[in-house]
Amino acid sequence: MQEVGTRDGFQAECTFVPTADKIALIDALSRTGVAKIETTAFVSPRAVPALRDAEVVLREIERHPSIVYSALVPNVRGAERAIEARADELNLVMSASESHNFSNLRMACAESFHALLEVGRLARDAGTTVNVSLSCAFGCPMEGDVAEQIVLDWTRRSIEELGATGITLCDTTGMAYPPQVAALTHAFIVRWPDIELTLHFHNTRGMGLANVLAAIEAGATRFDASLGGIGGCPYAPGATGNVCSEDIVHALDLMGYDTGVDLDALLAASRWLPDLLGHETPSQVAKAGRRLDLHGRSATTGRFARADTAA
Fold it and tell me: Can you say whether the dihedral through the CA atoms of 137, 139, 144, 148 is positive or negative?
């Protein structure tokens, strides 16, 4: 499990979460057992004011040696800032869809890739690993279906020319569906079994968990998820939050999968979010509790009250 709420989630929020609270939340997430945390993005403070404290956050978090602390970077300047702040990994982003890439980055896909080549060289010189996230890999809200071969071609070029050691296939607006997910996941793993594949789903149409399960059946082992289910691309019409970290962990735990994540610690972090953001989050398990969090009947009112029993 890889946590993206402190980047993908916070970037979509109108409220600026104080820097000290961001650091404390990332430290809490580090204690849950997630494998990777996308801590922040080194983007223009004017474009994304919610992440204007990227350097301070990345420098002051408490680092655990088993966790990769990643940062999104859009260009060379962002990469320089992230490397200086000691990011373990640079996450580079472009779209598999020309329309979405132009909407998001104001350039064609080929132009984006050419610009990222310099970022890749900078990362190699610094000894920093590179992950490439391909947005709209499962469909574009402006173009419709994106051909599987287009996604695989950009994947190949990212590995061969950018030196990416990881690829994230992103369902940016929740257009993915299980057979499609299984087919693309299988095609990727057959071609690049040694490349770290991450699936990044949004729950826009309620199919996030189904898509996670389809990807697992096809051989995937790494998933981005967002604490509380917050997030969403501001340049993608209709985009809503990422699949919810605690909801996914809860479901996979019940199915017998070893996520390596302490669900109690994850829920404690998630239940802090409404105070930080000023609104409720989409998380279902944070509200309802785990499957066997039981409720006792009040002797005086006859109403039910949650008991402190663990799942």
Answer: positive
